[in-house]
Amino acid sequence: MKNYPVLLLTLLLSAFFVSACSDHDSARTPAPPPPPPEPVFDPQATFRYDTFGDEALWTDVLRYHEVVATISPETALAVGLKVDAEALPPGILETADLTDPATTVALLELDAVVGINAEVAADGTVTSFGITCALCHSDVDDSVAPGIGVRQDGWAATDLDPGLILSLSPYFDDKPDQRAELQSWGPGKYDPYWNHDGISDPVVIAPAYGLRDVALETYTGEGPVSYWNAYVAVTQMGGQGTFVEPELNIEVHADPDLVTPKLPALLEYQHSLEAPVPPAGSYDPEAAERGRVLFTGKAGCEGCHSGPRFTDANTTLHEAHEVGADPLYATRTITKRYRTTPLRGLLQHPPYYHNGEFATLADVVEHYDLVMNLGLFDEEKSDLAEYLKSL
Q1: What is the DSSP code string of 108-120?
Q2: Contact 189/213 with Cβ under 8 angstroms?
Q3: Where does the record place the Cytochrome c domain (predicted)?
Q4: What's the domain range around 338?
Q5: Core-most of 184, 199, 262, 347, by most CB within 10 Å?
Q6: Residue 155 burial by Cβ neighbours in a 10 Å radius (0-12, 13-18, 19+)
């Protein structure tokens, strides 16, 4: 006969001792706390407002917090800076003095100057100054006044003069040759290798829209979008992050890294920016249709400008002589070749080619007709240019 009371007592005692031992062990070795959650970065805010800590360059070295306090909005607009109308209190522009540098400081305090993030003390002193991606890759629609309107993120800042803006820094007071070089670049151009190799050969600022499904960014296809974002953030903007490229002898590390964790958010926002639709009346639809037939046929443009983004950059880069391009810029890069530029939104960012040597799309067509020996008639060239405007 089974002794159920004894068995039950044994089980209860076992459970008690197991529980007691478990509690004792837990008291001695508490479970480790859960890891902190990964930071979440807002994609749009990263693009528009994040300096990645580049105040270390723009404030500490270039002393631009001092410079900007002496610049009027009138002058700022003249060098291509833009004002975000949606950041302004109603009616402020009706009374603002656009010739007074104090108005510039007030705009900075409102976060209304596109691509600039500054801190302003209670007494109106600008204490820090940094730049963001939006400085070169956003525009405004001029709906309030020239240079003042609603943001157009991803659009190339074609009238921004980065070289002139840089040259105003006191850092260049004892470097007249470098200052003169910067001032020679002109609006809408920048050289992202000049501070490494000392060669001045600026390229046209490119749009940041229409990059989804485009594997390689930049005119020379150095790498995917996030590679170039890291390069620019660290080596050009002065952000505090990590970028390593042995072929260019670049190795930069920062702790904490204020760039790398934000690259996915930045990429997400860029991929959300589609190329703008051509404005009504900006091209002749009938001529554009004839141009489309030429594009895919006689002119052979589709051989390189293929797929929905009109580029073969996902699989191919081209030697300079293939497209009649100046080889100098490519020789300074890791690929030594050029990427086929995506064509969507082409109408919005003249001049064309990496160095801006062609003022109009008609000039581009004329160039390819000569280089490729296409034998196009004048009317065909005109139709092809109209098609490019329609993309």
Answers
A1: HHTT-BTTEEEEE
A2: no
A3: 286-391
A4: 285-390
A5: 262
A6: buried
Quickly count helices (H) and strands (E) in the chain.
18, 10
Distance CA(56)–CA(239), nearest Å, equals 8
- Asked whether the CA dihedral 64, 68, 71, 76 is positive or negative, the reply is positive
Q: Which among 251, 272, 293 is the end of a domain?
A: 272
Backbone angles phi, psi at 250, to 5 degrees: -110, 125
Answer yes or no: are the C-beta atoms of 89 and 109 closer than 8 Å. Answer: no
Q: What is the CATH number of the domain that holds 294?
A: 1.10.760.10
What is the C-alpha separation between 11 and 316, in angstroms, rounded?
74
DSSP designation for 41: -
What's the predicted TM-score (pTM) here?
0.89
Helix (H, G, I), strand (E, B) or coil at 149: strand
10-24, 65-79, 137-151, 337-351: least confidently modelled range:
10-24
Among candidate residues 272, 293, 314, the one where a domain is terminated: 272
Looking at the structure, tell me whether residues 59 and 204 fall in a common domain: yes
Rg of the chain in Å (alpha carbons): 28
**Which tokens in the block code for residue 170?**
């006191």
Residues 223 and 314 grouped into a single domain:
no
| Sequence-separated (6 or more) residues with CB below 8 Å from residue 49 | 111, 117, 132, 134
Per the CB < 8 A criterion, the answer to whether 74 and 103 are in contact is no
Reduced to 3 DSSP states, what percent helix, strand and coil does the chain have, rounded to the nearest 5? Answer: 45, 10, 45
278 is a domain residue: no
Q: Does residue 279 lie within any of the structural domains? A: no
Report CA-CA distances (Å) from 281 to 58, 116, 285, 293, 343.
42, 34, 9, 21, 19
Given a contact cutoff of 8 angstroms between Cβ atoms, the answer to whether 372 and 277 are in contact is no
Average pLDDT over residues 139-164: 98
Q: Could you read off the pLDDT of 239-273 as tens digits, one per residue?
A: 999 999 999 999 999 999 999 999 999 999 999 99
| DSSP E strand boundaries for 98-217 | 116-120, 126-131, 138-140, 148-149, 151-153, 189-190, 203-204
- Mean local confidence (pLDDT), 221-233: 96
Same domain, 223 and 339: no
Q: Is 15 a member of any domain?
A: no
